[in-house]
Write the structure tokens for this entry.
Amino acid sequence: MRPQGRGVPALNSQRDGYSGSALDKAQMHFDWHFTAVQVLWTLTFAAQLILMVVLLGRDRVRRFPWFTVSVVAAALRLLCGRELFQRLPQLTYTAVLIVFTLVVAIVGLLVIVELARKAFAGVRRAELIVNLLGLLLVTAGIMSMWGPWPAWKTLTAESQLATLRVLDLIAEKTGLLVNLLNIELGLMVVIFGRGFKAPWKSHTQRIVIGLSTASMGAVAVQVIWQFVLRSAQPHTQAEARPILEFHDRLLNANGALYVAVLVWWIVWLWIDEPDPAAARPSAPPPDVPAEAEALAEPTSDTTAAE
């Protein structure tokens, strides 16, 4: 019987389909030093750069300027979050990330307005404003019941940390507002967009679908995590470790979904929109025999002259 190496499982070359020494092949393993977070960060940043190249190269910036700004702002936030880590004091680093998050959320609101105007260009401005206000009221009602709100004394405390807490709260709630509006706008564009300026396979519709998909993933992560926090009550560090690992898996899944959305945008923004004129049914050909017969018949004036 052949001795086993330490940490190497017993393998049977005939049973497992190995040729040669199974023990030698078991010792040859691929050394992978990257974590899931690092892989997702690299894929996300690379996809954002490719999307910016597509927006510039295919002349989509002129049509979707605020969407382009949002992609650039998200890429800068991602890059600064990695490059400034452990290079700045913790408080300064947190303040920079909060400001970037708030800027991305504000730009996200402008993207919603831009896409809504393009998708429903035929609607009168008053009706569009009323619909947007209705969406804001519904979203505000959802946000008022969403998650815990800090105490007023915590927000009004005169300290640098309290200021950061206020900015963090504004950035968090603005991001939630953007996610909810993205979902609502996505439903409206999919249901009613064909009758206006967002038909099937149009760039406006594809961008809105991507935004709503990414927002649904982000909202789902928050809902699941809040449910876990309310139901789970760990008393020791060993009990809390599986909960934190589950939270990391949720974030990784949401990051993978965002990468898929970026790939979706890259593909569909690279492809030109279908020609609306070609999609319309052509007019039926004229009745040539009937017209020829009508032309062949003499008119009453000609008959009288003869």
About this structure: Residues 35-272 form one domain.
